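---------- Forwarded message ----------

FYI, see the Phosphoacetylglucosamine mutase record below. Original note from H. follows.
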Amino acid sequence: MKEQQQSLLLSSSARFPPPQGVRLSYGTAGFRADAGLLQSTVYRVGILAALRSLKLDSSVIGLMITASHNKESDNGVKIADPSGGMLSQHWEPFADALANAPSPQHLLHLIIEFVEKENIPLEGARPAQILLGRDTRPSGESLLEAAKQGISSILGAVAIDMGIVTTPQLHWMVRARNKGVKASELDYFEQLSSSFRCLMDLIPSGSTFNEVDYKLVVDGANGVGGEKLEVLKKRLDGLAIEVRNSGKDGGVLNEGVGADYVQKEKVVPRGFSSQDVGIRCASLDGDADRLVYFSVPSESSSKIDLVDGDKMLSLFAVFIKEQLSILNKEGHTDVNSDYQPRLGVIQTAYANGASTDYLRRLGLEVLFTPTGVKYLHEKAAEYDIGIYFEANGHGTIVFSESFLCWLESRNYELSSVVKGSEQQKAALRLLAVSKLINQAVGDALSGLLLVEAILRHMGWSIHRWTELYQDLPSRQLKVKVVDRTAVVTANAETVAVRPPGIQEAINAETAKYPQGRSFIRPSGTEDVIRVYAEASTQEAADSLANSVAKLVDQFLGFSSS
Ligand code: 16G
Ligand code: MG
């Protein structure tokens, strides 16, 4: 590394000393902490983003400043790789080491070592390009400045500020830029609204929809998603969206609002009340990469009927499967129709057992990965059509390039032989879904439009959708322990292989409950062990979760040490 580059790194990093006594970790989805602790981390992630771009032939890399559903005073930072997906796991240890380097000299040493090991071309031979985005958190502005400083401490690196955007918008823009297609926010809105229109135009004429079902009320979590939906909805015909908690009416980000709150607490968010009984409602999280639906069943309580990620997955799977079977119907044309696309469905252990049974009964291949989008997305990408969702509402549909090519040519053939046939419409619908749904990462806005188009296509109310299957009662708890890394899991987090004996004890408890299922895992975002239990009644699920939490405390809690 040349002298000039070394002294640039030393002088700029001296302006961003790391916080004392805190160890930061890249975690499941980037660094997250109290915003006041993050200046140095974000500056260093800026350096990492520039190096990543140089390593990958100057591809565009994304850097997003957000702490998603966490409280407003927190913030965070994560990297999007050139595909629009998450940072390669292979670089996470370097991210951890960078964030925790105690001094400018240590930092420089780490960078020199890494640059050599990875063979990264420095000294401005090629430019590095980084797209920057942030959510609505007040701390975002100064953290963005820190990111810019980090980026400009690598010679020849250029930062392009996209302003306040949702996390999925930034991932989408990174992906689009690297594909060489239009990548502005306007292009994003244009792609979503035109593919939505296309799906709406292809709705079968007999499909019926009640007056009340035309309306959708969305809780924007007082974050960036509500703001963007206000813009997007102006481009949509045939759908009346009312946005509440858009952040303009004085509400606080994620406080008593948002997808995480609604999914975990199962009560109405602020701004919703008994007056909304029967109306289709949805909730976004703070950076709009999660979405859940709900309805208020009765005027007398604040409880909701939750429609979670599992049910969105089921809705998407039913629709895609139906379109594939129409497309592959024997008949009209057999040119190029022998391709059997592989459809896969990916869940985590948090998926309600009833959803997995339902999907398997549909004849679908259901696979499990550990928690965290990076694992689900990677697995989904092994299929021609991979549909993945976490129960918490993060998910999307991933289409393989080869399947999309085949679909384009199939559509072309069908349009010349049997234009306007059901088969051709099925091809067009699948193509529209591939454009509407964000291929880079789960996206509450694009997911919401796909749900709306499919419900309209099926003629289903939110109640009809809820009744696809009945969720098994479940309970989630968290337990503080001395050291959460003492729990090691296997089989997509369903089995605890360490500490020795704990899984046998969990099995013995679980066996006492009809339809009982329970697992434990260390959280990737909080210093706790999470406990999940489900069983045939709510009382049984609660009791199983409590017993397993006690086991965790016995094996690992403060009283055991
Ligand atoms: C992060 C993950 C989310 C996961 C959650 C689990 C991404 C983009 N986000 O928010 O998918 O469900 O962590 O948190 O990957 P936990 O490990 O604390 O339970
Ligand atoms: Mg989020």
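H. also flagged this: The chain has a mean pLDDT of 95.
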